[in-house]
Amino acid sequence: MTAAPAADAAPRLGADILAERLAAAGCRRAFGIPGGEVLALIEGLRAAGVAFHLTKHENAAGFMAEGAWHADSLDLAPGERAAPGILIATIGPGVANAVNVVANAVQDRVPLLFLTGCVDGAEALTYTHQVFDHQAMLRPIVKATLRAEAGAIGAAVDKALAIALSGQPGPVHLDLPIDAMEGPAIGQDAVPQSPPKPLAGSAPAPGPDLERARALLRDAERPLALVGVDAVNEGAGPAVANFLHAYGIPAIASYKAKGLLDDGDPLSLGGAGLSPKADAILKPLLEAADLILLLGYDPIEMRKGWRRPWPDATPVVEITPVLRDHGMHPAVAETFLADLAPSLAVLSDGAPARPVWSDGAPGRAKAALGEAFAPEPGWGPARAFHVLREAAPENVTTTVDSGAHRILLSQAWPVSRPRGLLQSTALCTMGCALPLAMGHALARPETPVLAFVGDAGLEMGLGELATVRDLKLPVVIAVLVDESLALIELKQRAGQNPNTGVDFPGSDFPAIARALGGVGRWVDDEATLRTEATAAFERRDQFTLLAIRIGRRAYDGKF
């Protein structure tokens, strides 16, 4: 029987219940900007052992939460999932500021709890300052939006956690009225409860569908796999790699799944989805394949060139956690709504391996990709990537912002493990790389982190250089300086439109870095980059910004 609290003990508040439930679920960090409406929540989190980290903008806070979640997801057992990241915003403008990163979380399949303060319902009837319907605004871009009520706060948290982590993970919004957070725990919240248990992984049931899939695998002479974000989120990398090796099946990854199969593996054909140059090499394999295996593949990352990328008659076997309604490719022959690791085990049973791709086409494609994205002669972005890959520690985690540099880097940068290259791949939002790197470095300080940003993307969130300074994180930031929105400028020229709104004057980024407490260096050649990058990775409590001047139109013909 639970002992009654001492008469002089401080009453447990609704915010304490919420914080304790999050801590019990494994949440250890929260990010955001406080306001009066969430002060009780922040104190509750502190008391429960959940650290709150102040940022300069809610958008960056959400990406820091994602970066930390990726770090927490490493080394988990297959099927296990790390607790969601936590983003906190105050009423009104704080909530509105976070819309971009919440939309990113739903498209990029990131579990995120978005906790927002709100005015009590009765108060909102006669008080309008900063008041609008948070739930109505967020409903289209979250998996669910809930309003916590006094007496059922624990139930709301449990429901939010379950929704955020189930199927394809994503963001869940919890609107927190002031009276519910600052008032005493009542009703079911006054009784201790155990957190819900995660569901066990599922596998396809025996039957004709499974037998047909085994027959397709057994008879295929040119099987090809597409692996995606769901395989990463399920921690299915080892199971996928073992399956592909057992059958000799080459694999194309979406950018989010790069590293699921080591890029150095002969069967790995790297990432795909944005580069026309890479597509021209990979598409013939899709057209020649006599079996397509979709292993956690979500085409939300792919551009319109990946609609119907193989002949309609090609048989397809798909393993997915959710029903796909995208319409990007032809109907699938066999679909299994199940987890990858147990599904691949039962699919392999009764389907012995046989020699495949006797013409050696995948090997030639891999060699062609290597040549297509090799460092250019002299100086340029691909050369800079090559030098940084050699200078960086082997276990570096890399993040990259959206833009021309991301497309080239995602093809040219080798990745040996899942979550080794972090980026916004579905929403493709700018301003993500630095906070992703910061969150990862905070959660996993033993792992070096390198963030690639364009000059325009860095200028979107310069204030977060102060955050990385305050947290004393040794993040290395590589800024590709071309004084242009290079990808948009390329499209502008391709459409024979005049140069408008894409070029801009340069900023003195090294001076800005020094002013905000970091080390800043200009880089104009390979030797300087090698020297400065080596020194940057040796710093342990200070960020380094390497401003790499490549000149305008440096990406022409590169991807």
For the largest sheet, list the strands in their spatial order: 2-1-3-4-6-5
Q: Return Rg in Å.
A: 25 Å
Cα end-to-end separation: 67 Å
In what range is the share of β-strand residues?
Answer: 15-25%
Shape: globular
As a percent range, the share of helical residues equals 25-40%
Helix count from the secondary structure assignment: 23
Can you offer a commentary on this structure?
The protein is 38% helix and 16% strand. By secondary structure, the chain is an alpha/beta fold. Helix 8 (153-165) links the parallel strand 5 and strand 6 (171-177). The chain is globular. Strands 2-1-3-4-6-5 form a 6-stranded parallel beta sheet, with helices on both faces. A 6-stranded parallel beta sheet has the order 9-8-7-10-11-12, sandwiched between helices. Residues 1-7 have low confidence and may be disordered. It starts with 13 loop residues before the first helix and ends in a 10-residue tail after the last strand. It has 23 helices and 18 strands. Helix 1 (14-24) crosses helix 2 (39-48).
